Give the backbone structure.
Amino acid sequence: MTPQCPTPRHEDERVLLGHGAGGRLTAELLDALLLPAIGAPAGPLEDAATLPPVGLPVISTDSFVVSPLSFPGGDIGSLAVHGTVNDLAMRGAQPVALAVSLIIEEGLPLAELRSVVESLGKAAAEAEVPVVTGDTKVVGRGAADRLFITTTGIGRRIPALHPSAARAQPHDAILLSGPIGLHGTAVLSTREGLGFEADITSDSRPLHRLVHALAPHNSDIHTLRDPTRGGLAATLNEIAEASGTGAEIDESALPVPGPVAAACDLLGLDPLHVANEGCLVAYVPEARADDVLHTMRRVPEGASAVRIGRTTAVHPRRVDLLTRVGSRRVVDMPLGEQLPRIC
C-alpha cells in the first residue's frame, strides 16, 4: 500500500469561506479542530441533539448570514425560523419554542431591520413556534455584514419517530419531498443581478408538519435530512458516511426546475451542490416507499415528492449517479464554497 502524504499544516493557516460551505472543508474543520476542542462524543453528526437523559427535549442552534438580506421567496428573518424548525424536525421532533439573537451592524436602516424582524415574527407565528427569548447586539461599522441572526430551537420528540443518518440501511428507497436548487439560485441571482429573479423563488419553508404526517410510519422512517449547505450531494454523502451504506441516484428522477437548470448551466454549477431550504430527503425500506410517498404527497410541503434512488451494500459510503445516457459517475462531497452567504 502506497503511503499517503499528509495534508500540509501551517501555523499561519486561515479560515476560508469554504470552511463554512457544508462540504469537505467543513468536515475537516469539525473533525480536526472544533469537535476535539469541545470534547464532543464520537458518532454521527445530526442536525439536532436529544438532551440527556434520553427522551428529554431536542435542541438545535444555527446562525444565518445570508447576503442579500432579502431574496425572492423570503429573507434572513423567515429563513432563520424555517432553518431551525427544520433541523428539529429532521430528528423527529415537534418544535415548541425559539430563542433569537441579532448581531446588527451600525448603519443598518431601521426600516430594513423592522422588515426582517416582522418577517421573522410572521414566520414563527405561521409555524406555531413562539419566540420566547433573545438578545440584541449592535457592533461598529465593518464588524459585521449588516445583520446576522442566531436561533436556538427546542423541540419535543415525536414518540414514533427516531430518524438518524446512521439508521439508513441497504435496500432503502431514497425519497425527496420537492424540487432542488431553488434557494441557492434565487439568492445568487438576486445578489449578482443575473436576471433569474422572476423565474426562481426560494423554497424556504417549515417542514415540521410534513414530518409529523410521517409519524404513523414510525420505524420505517430510517433517516430524514434537509439538504441545505452543500446541497443534495453533501447530504447524501453525509448519510452514506454515517450509515456505511452506498447510494445510487437516478438522474432522470431528480426534480430540477427548468430555470434552475438554466441558471446552473450558465454559471457552471451542479444542481446537486446548490442549497435548498424547503425539501427533505427520507430513507425508508423499499417495500414501504409507495406508502410513504402517498403520505408525503397529501401534505402541501410534500406534494411533489418523488423517489430518486436507493441504497446499496455494493459500494459502501459512496454515492453514484446513474446518468440519463446510462453511464455512472461518483457524486463527491463538495470541496468548498460554490455559493457564498446563502444561509
